[in-house]
Specification:
The chain is of the alpha+beta class. The chain has one domain (2-141): Nucleoside Triphosphate Pyrophosphohydrolase. It has three helices and ten strands; from the N terminus they run E-E-E-E-H-E-E-E-E-E-E-H-H. It has helices at 39-51, 116-122, 126-141; strands at 2-8, 15-20, 25-27, 29-32, 56-58, 65-71, 74-76, 79-81, 84-95, 108-114. Strand 1 and strand 2 form a beta hairpin. Helix 2 (116-122) packs antiparallel against helix 3 (126-141). The chain is globular.
């Protein structure tokens, strides 16, 4: 299981993304649950770790989106990880876009706020843009 965060600012005009070192693309934040059963807590923890943000909170505690994601084989921390599947839950979280962000060098090399439209253009993963991020952008509009 993995938990992801679609992080927006208070007025929903910006989305927080990281430049993922493995996928070489701007992407949402998140990570493996590693046995943790509180997936909302996992999503919040990942945002804090990956973006250096301390004040992040759920817009809702309900699951915002569900995904089944294929992951190609890759090298992580010097070891090969074979292709696998992520069963993923996404939560809609909110943070202050004025708060200082910082990279987590072993996972990402950039952290930035983008408009939703910019976020769709920044990702270089067409499948994610078309099937995940575009869906999240549309769903976010109903939370304004």
């Amino acid at each position: 299981m993995t938990a992801s965060a679609w992080v927006v600012d208070k007025d929903r005009s910006k989305v927080l993304m990281v430049y993922h070192n493995i996928y070489h693309s701007w992407s949402w934040l998140g990570g493996h649950a590693d046995g943790e059963t509180d997936l909302l807590a996992v999503a919040i923890r990942e945002v804090k770790e990956e973006a250096g943000i301390s004040d992040v909170r759920p817009v809702s505690e309900e699951i915002f989106s569900l995904e089944s994601l294929t992951v190609d084989g890759h090298v992580k921390k010097g070891r090969y990880v074979s292709s696998h599947l992520h069963l993923n839950v996404t939560y809609l979280l909110e943070a202050d876009s004025e708060e200082q962000v910082s990279v987590k060098a072993d996972e990402n090399s950039g952290v930035a706020w983008f408009t939703p439209e910019e976020a769709l253009k920044k990702s270089t993963e067409p499948w994610f843009v078309e099937r995940v991020y575009a869906k999240l952008v549309e769903k976010t509009k109903s939370w304004r």
